[in-house]
Amino acid sequence: GQVLMHGKQVDVSSVQKAIKAGIAYVTEDRKGNGLLLDDNIKRNITLANLSGVSKLGVVDEHEEITVATDFLKKLRIRAQGVTHVVGNLSGGNQQKVVLSKWLFSEPEVLILDEPTRGIDVGAKYEIYNIINQAVAAGKCVVMISSEMPELLGMCDRVYVMNEGRFVGEFTAEEVSQEKIMRAIMRNGGIENA
Which residue ranges does the record assign to the ABC transporter domain (predicted)? Predict the structure, then answer.
């Protein structure tokens, strides 16, 4: 397939090319693929955009601390400081570190795969606020979720997939849990309300 941004095809054949094109992907497996659990918060936050904290290819430790401290405050990450080991954080705070990492890469498109899986209700609410702030800042947010209340509450458009195929498309005004389930149960085709 092709990926188009602003009507032009972009190369997303590697992670580096996708980041350069302004696309960030927050994996559903934060512990396995999203974080360096044995490393600290500042290193994890700056990892996807090292050029943003480097001079002549050398990481500026002071700038890295400044950036990480800013995200620690903005995203309300509960930790002793930016040198805190990420593996010792709660699931919700780990997810905020992953979001910080990708927000620091300054993407135009932020793809969130199961962004609140495995975190408590309070942390979910905070993650939703972060997502809403990204949208308010003009970011395109694509949320992949198996939690229907999350989709119904957060999305302005819902696409339903089943067995790797699109089987439904709904606006926020017309979507309901029943319509999503009906689309899943159908044997193909796009169903509009």
Answer: 5-188
